[in-house]
Each structure stands twice: as structure tokens, then as C-alpha cells.
Amino acid sequence: MLTAEARVETDRATRYLDQLCRHAQQMGQRPHYRPRVHGGGDTHRPPEVRDVEWSETRGTVRLSLGQWALRATPEALVLRVEAANEDDLQQMQDLIAGRLEKIGRRDHLSVSW
């Protein structure tokens, strides 16, 4: 199993952990979710969400490509991604980093693996 880890400095880690897990849970409840196609091209289908569990300080999201483990500390949100191969690992990193940077744009969050 390949892994990657990132530490995102924020004093609102619990809030972001909750938002990421809720978003993943909603994606899992909509199995036919597909991003809109613009310009007639094919879109990349997001991985299937299999299970989501979280508390105030820890979260786990199991996807068809692997899993995310999230940990909130008073100073940071720690992200750990696991996947069976490099392509899946990269896709998972891009997915969680993109979502976190979008919801954390007001706090200027940035993920570096």
C-alpha cells in the first residue's frame, strides 16, 4: 500500500475535517453523481465512496481507490492517503487537496504532499 501525508496548518481543523467527511458522505449517498460536462468532452468519474466515519478529531473515508485518514489537532489538519498504486494515490491526493483548498479558500489553505 502506498501512502502520502500532508499537514495543513489551521486553527479550524475540526471544522474542515467535518466538512470533508460530510461532503464524502453526500457523494456516497448519490451513487449516480457525475460532474457536468462542458464542451461535449468526457468527464472524469469520481471514485465510489464506500464508507465514511468521523468524530471531532478523526475521520476515515474509504473509497474504491483507497482511503483517506484525517486527524484534527489544535494547530493543523493532518491528511493521510493510502492507495494500491501510484495513479490511484495521485488521484486521491488531487481529490482531497482540491476539495480542502476550495472550502478553505478564505483561510488560504494549501496542501503540500
Question: Which helices and strands appear, and what pairs or packs with what?
Answer:
Elements: E1 2-9, H1 13-29, E2 49-54, E3 58-63, E4 66-72, E5 76-83, H2 86-103
Antiparallel strand pairs: 1-5, 2-3, 3-4, 4-5
Describe this structure in words.
- The protein is an alpha+beta fold.
- It is built from 2 helices and 5 strands.
- Strands 1-5-4-3-2 form a 5-stranded antiparallel sheet, covered by helices on one side.
- A hairpin with a 3-residue loop joins strand 4 and strand 5.
- The radius of gyration is 14 Å and the shape is globular.
Structure summarized in a few sentences:
With 113 residues, the chain is α+β, with helices and mostly antiparallel strands.
Please describe the structure with a list of short key phrases separated by commas or semicolons.
single chain; 113 residues; alpha+beta; five-stranded antiparallel sheet; 2 helices; 5 strands
Give Rg in angstroms: 14 Å
Largest sheet: 5 strands, antiparallel
Low-confidence parts? none
Q: Structural class from helices and strands?
A: alpha+beta
Instruction: Give me the number of helical elements.
Output: 2
SSE string, helix = H, strand = E?
EHEEEEH
Beta content: 25-35%
